[in-house]
Amino acid sequence: MRYWTIGAMAVVLMTTACGRKDASPAPETSPATPAQASSTAVGKSPTLAAIKRRGRLNCGVHQGLVGFAYTDNRGQWRGFDVDFCRATAAAVLGDADAVRFVPLSASDRFTALNDGRIDVLWRNSSWTMSRDAGEGFVFAGVNYYDGQGFLVRRSLNLNSATELMGARVCVQSGSTSQANAADYFRSRGIEYRPVVFETEEAARDAYGREDCDAFSADISALAAARTVLTNPNEHVILSDVASKEPLGPAIKAGDERWASTVRWTLNALMLAEELGVTKANAEDQFKTTKDPRVRRLLGAEGEFGPMLGLSDDWAKDAVEAVGNYGEIFERNLGSQSALDLARGLNAQWNARPAGLIYGLPIR
Predict the structure, then answer these.
(1) What contacts 39, CB < 8 A, 6 or more positions away?
(2) With contact defined as beta carbons under 8 Å apart, do 274 and 109 qualify?
(3) Which of 30, 154, 244, 333 is 20 to 30 Å apart from 18, CA to CA?
(4) Angle between the 314-322 and 80-93 helix axes, to the nearest 10 degrees?
(5) Please, are residues 161 and 224 in contact by the beta-carbon 8 Å criterion?
(6) What domain of life is recorded for the organism (predicted)?
(7) How many whole angstroms separate alpha carbon 363 and alpha carbon 355?
(8) 94 exposure class (CB count in 10 Å sphere: 0-12, 13-18, 19+)
(9) CA angle 324-327-331, nearest 5°?
(10) Angle, to 10 degrees, between the axis of helix 46-54 and the axis of helix 80-93?
């Protein structure tokens, strides 16, 4: 009898344990659905709301850099970065002319962004760790892959910047150029004499007066500087690339929805080139294409614009305003411009030879 009682108790205990193991534990919290998570994680953009109230985008640009941002003889703003400002205004307000261009120096560009004087900075600014993690600015992408180089007189017969031992090198203060030049020469044990100026224009003019032997800046800026020098053919950009300079739009931290708006405007223009959507054919593509990628891009299907607080055809408005990425490049920096720069790293990822321009998918 004692043995039966012990055995029965063991069976009861085992059955109870198994029941506890198989039972589903009560959840600690109710998980949010994807829609709930999205709505709580991303709210409305105060920057976008302010832009819509005033009916104008405030866009920070260079004070005057041929190819990127400058005023023509009629006082109209032109250039690569200027076109991206117009594209952003078109995407947000449906009007590429609803933009106020704010010319900024290298030293006050980020202050203007932080103070709220501008909504976005489209001003050939390098995406660096200190600006991103240290100063807290948000870069929404890269619209031009550049590098720092050296402009010298052809008469010097130089083959490399490593031959600039003891040379006077003009650079701009308050930019990455001064630090990059110092790193370049220091790492190679080359002594040089930096000649520092407040603005890029002042550094260029000093080089033109032969106050220095070389001018160091982003290669695109050197190409622009050469076009305005007396006898441009007397100057050459050396093959040395002293740094990586990923240039792109920056916004003030704290408004992720606005960062997404700028980011996807840039990506839409890149994607438009990849998919063959141009300023001239965007409307026809919108009406007739059966390609789902193009239909989503132009707003013929899906509801992607409202995710950003924009209209369904926000990207179509941007492309129709300034063209796709390739059109913007060729008109301002490429074969149709005075700079005549090759696409190089700024070619599409699937071009031959391939570049780094890669539009993120809209889906």
Answers:
(1) none
(2) no
(3) 30
(4) 150
(5) no
(6) Bacteria
(7) 23
(8) middle
(9) 145
(10) 90
The residue count of the chain comes to 363
Residuewise pLDDT in 10s, the chain (363 residues)? 343 443 443 433 334 443 433 433 433 333 333 333 333 335 799 999 999 999 999 999 999 999 999 999 999 999 999 999 999 999 999 999 999 999 999 889 999 999 999 999 999 999 999 999 999 899 999 999 999 999 999 999 999 999 999 999 999 987 789 999 999 999 999 999 999 999 889 999 999 999 999 999 999 999 999 999 999 999 999 999 999 999 999 999 999 999 999 999 999 999 999 999 999 999 999 999 999 999 999 999 999 999 999 999 999 999 999 999 999 999 999 999 999 999 999 999 999 999 999 999 999
- What are the backbone angles phi and psi of residue 78, rounded to the nearest 5°? -135, 160
97 CB contacts (<8 Å, ≥6 apart)? 86, 89
**Nearest CA among 113, 106, 102 for reference residue 47:** 113
Q: Please, what is the end-to-end C-alpha distance for the chain in angstroms?
A: 73
Spatial CA neighbour of 299 closest among 177, 308, 186: 308
Phi-psi region of 277 (alpha: psi -120 to 50; beta: other; left: phi over 0): beta
Beta strands 250-252 and 137-139 are: antiparallel
Residue bearing tokens 């660096």:
128
Return d(Cα 103, Cα 94) in angstroms, integer: 23
Beta strand extents in the chain (DSSP E only): 57-62, 70-71, 77-78, 99-104, 120-121, 137-139, 144-146, 148-153, 168-172, 193-197, 214-218, 235-237, 245-247, 250-252
The residue whose two tokens read 């004499």 is 193
Nearest Cα residue to 253 out of 114, 127, 137, 139:
137
Asked if 268 and 315 count as a contact pair (C-beta separation under 8 A), the reply is yes
CA-based R_g, the chain, Å: 28
The pair of structure tokens assigned to 241 is: 């690339």
